[in-house]
Amino acid sequence: MSRTRVVVTGLGTTSPLGGDVASTWEGLLAGRSGVRPLGDMADGLPVTIGATAAVDPAEVLDRVVARRLDRSSQFALIAALEAWADSGLEAARESGALDGDRFGVAFASGIGGVHTLLSNHSVLLEKGPRRVSPIAVPMLMANAPAATISLKLGARGPVNTPVSACASGNEAVSLAADQIRLGRVDVAIAGGTEAAIHPLPIAAFANMMALSKNDGDPTKVSRPFDTGRDGFVLGEGAGALVLESLEHAQARGARIYAEVLGTGITADAHDIAQPDPAGRGGARAIRAAVKDADVSPGDIAHVNAHATSTPQGDVAESLMLHAVLGSAADDLVVSATKSMTGHLLGGAGALEAVATVLAIHHRTAPPTINLDEQDPRVELDVATKPRDLPLGDIAAINNSFGFGGANVAVVFGSPS
Amino acid sequence: MSTEEIRAALAEIVNEVAGIPADSVQLDKSFSDDLDVDSLSMVEVVVEAEEKFGVTIPDDEVKNLKTVGDAVAYIERNRAA
């Protein structure tokens, strides 16, 4: 029996570059930075910049809906609803043609509802336990974003929340694709979200020396693959994809952006925070994804790199690609979109999945900004301007790596 | 505060928490059946009301506050005490 094929039929995001897919993609192609000063909120902190959402989610949602959701769930709901509208499935849902039992959600967050947790902790200290919100738990729990989407759209199949730090969003895409391949659902919303631009996470990430301490022009601080990189810039927002079995998509004449060809998930078992300097775990994830996709290295035209702008991680990623793809790694076009969006943690892999799918769809790899002097240890063709991708059948890899040693690679292909 | 002032202030809280138009929060209305205030939202309303009116509304008492009028009467009885 042939394997169930999985395709992408809807895209959504709210990001540091824009409140939807069109504005975010336009920002990526224009090489615009979403990194800005954080203002009063960052007074006294070792890092005072971040890639804040371009559009405040609380201004987009109905007031009563917004007050019951952590900022991370607000982002998730906005991105999911855009992807859902984009997929054209709403009519099928309304008419009952889409069976809610065959509709799932895999939506990740790296940290969960940290704003809600910390604001309620402040209330506890200042006003006492009686004033702690009775909806604090459903707001801050890790699966709140996934559950919010399930409730809104009536998804009654598996509703999951994979958590693997900065690989979470990409793992959600992989998990949702698996649910469709296993025949458990026909349709799934996959994605990831994060809203961790708050003094406590900033202090914590800064103290572990993960964040850049560069206090120059904020738009120049996130510089993946550049010799001047010294850490990542925290970002926030969400990305969402509607995944569907090919059969289901074709039966309703859906527009297909790309196909999920293969996925690979591994762990380093090396260190809780540092990547394996040789990139062995990441290489195994990429190798597994390429094998699962049944493509040859030469088919891979584009990689959306994890490339967070840390000294070790960016070099390790170059090593991984060469270890798996051999000389074909010289010929593909690499984009490091975190140079513009900052690092969305649990949302990163999802936003970058959206970018990878759009790169295939538009046959254009987005640029990497701030690459003034490429680290000689990074032996990759990194796009610094929008670059055309070949016509015909192509594949692209989205890489994500997370604390805890998590590695996730997903191979997307052009529709065929 | 008069009964009407308490009702109006409570209506503002119900509007803030649950988005119910304040002018529909009348004394004869049931929180759950007429106004669609779910149980967790009711707890939010109670906690806000405690602060606003300087009263304590124990959890055991909340289930007796079926209508807006029940809540207003409870607040009137306990405010001065």
UniProtKB/TrEMBL annotation, chain B:
TM ranges: none
A cellular-component GO term for this protein: membrane
Protein's pathway: Lipid metabolism; fatty acid biosynthesis
Modified residues (O-(pantetheine 4'-phosphoryl)serine): S39
Post-translational modification comment from the UniProt entry: 4'-phosphopantetheine is transferred from CoA to a specific serine of apo-ACP by AcpS. This modification is essential for activity because fatty acids are bound in thioester linkage to the sulfhydryl of the prosthetic group.
Compartmental location: Cytoplasm
Keywords, comma-separated and alphabetical: Cytoplasm, Fatty acid biosynthesis, Fatty acid metabolism, Lipid biosynthesis, Lipid metabolism, Phosphopantetheine, Phosphoprotein
The Carrier domain, residue ranges: 1-79
Keyword ATP-binding set for record: no
Molecular-function GO term, any one: acyl carrier activity
Keyword Manganese annotated: no
One family name in Pfam for this protein: PP-binding
Domain EAL stretches: 1-81
Taxonomic superkingdom: Bacteria
Entries under InterPro entries matching the protein: ACP, ACP-like_sf, EAL_dom, PP-bd_ACP
HAMAP family for this protein: Acyl_carrier (MF_01217)
Biological role: Carrier of the growing fatty acid chain in fatty acid biosynthesis.
Name assigned to this protein: Acyl carrier protein
Native organism: Nocardioides kongjuensis
